[in-house]
Write a structure and sequence with these properties.
With 266 residues, this protein is of the alpha+beta class. The chain contains six helices and 14 strands. It folds into two domains: 146 residues, Rossmann fold (3-Layer(aba) Sandwich); 98 residues, Bacterial fluorinating enzyme like (Elongation Factor Tu (Ef-tu), domain 3, Beta Barrel).
Length: 266
């Protein structure tokens, strides 16, 4: 038996249609004792970067040997690979499109294999457009029942990582960009908190601009500034975030993913 029968799902399926229920049913048909936990099904459609960020924020919080199934798969049905691997303490089953990027940044790969899809079930042809139900779910069930993930297929010659621009810095500033807008309208950047702390131990003296607009100074949390005031803070994942107390920074700053962000002291 597997060391854990805990499995998470992260998809862009939403909750309006029956897709999530179909995936869960297919997992339970193979492993009736599976414990299925939803990370989210509200990742914006086809948004691999948002999925990668959500995965890296949530997956490490789970117990060792949890299986994480990621189905954000805009090229479903093509020759893109499906991969299964152990990174750190957890197992991940995911399409080879870069959604694993931030997990790889934090945890070493102990094993990584290409999944060779199982033969179609007699009387039920597999769908080229619903690998979540017909490929990911049965494979997840088999992993939860204890199948060695290294036996699903060969090791890949390579795998895909997202090309996330690294922030740059000079003597007076750090320049980065927005990489995610969360449901509160907060702007998550590609600037690591550690880089800011190393450059400016007194972060309260640092101001930010976003797309040329003043985005405020650093504060420890939202309510430490006046309502509707902008602020800069370190988010729970260790990145610089731009926010507005009880407001939406994306609207106040007219900014979206890709907007430039500059930090300066003074």
């Amino acid at each position: 038996m597997a060391r854990s029968q805990l499995v998470t799902l992260l998809t862009d399926f939403g909750s309006r249609d029956g897709y999530v229920g179909a995936v869960k049913g297919a997992i339970l048909s193979v492993c009736p004792r599976a414990q299925i936990i939803d990370i989210s099904h509200d990742v914006p459609a086809h948004d691999i970067l948002a999925g990668a960020l959500g995965l890296s924020a949530a997956a490490p919080c789970f117990p060792p040997d949890t299986l994480h199934v990621v189905i954000i798969d805009p090229t479903v049905g093509t020759d893109r690979k499906i991969l299964v691997g152990r990174f750190g303490r957890h197992v991940y089953l995911f399409p080879d499109n870069g959604v694993i990027t931030f997990i790889v940044d934090r945890f070493p790969a102990e094993s990584l294999n290409v999944v060779l899809p199982p033969a179609p079930v007699v009387g039920r042809p597999g769908s080229m457009t619903f690998h979540g139900r017909d490929v990911f779910a049965p494979i997840a069930g088999r992993i939860l029942l204890g199948q060695d993930i290294r036996k699903f297929g060969p090791q890949p010659a390579s795998y895909t990582l997202l090309d996330i621009p690294a922030p740059t810095q000079d003597e007076t500033r750090i320049t980065g960009q927005v990489i995610h807008v969360d449901r509160f309208g907060n702007l998550v950047t590609n600037i690591p908190a550690a880089a800011v702390m190393q450059k400016w131990p007194n972060v309260e003296a640092v101001r930010a601009t976003c797309a040329g607009r003043d985005a405020g100074r650093f504060a420890a949390t939202y309510a430490f500034v006046a309502e509707a005031a902008p602020l800069v803070l370190f988010d729970s994942s260790g990145r610089v975030e731009l926010a507005v107390n009880r407001g939406r920074a994306c609207d106040s700053l007219a900014a979206d993913v890709g907007a430039p962000v500059i930090l300066r002291a003074g």
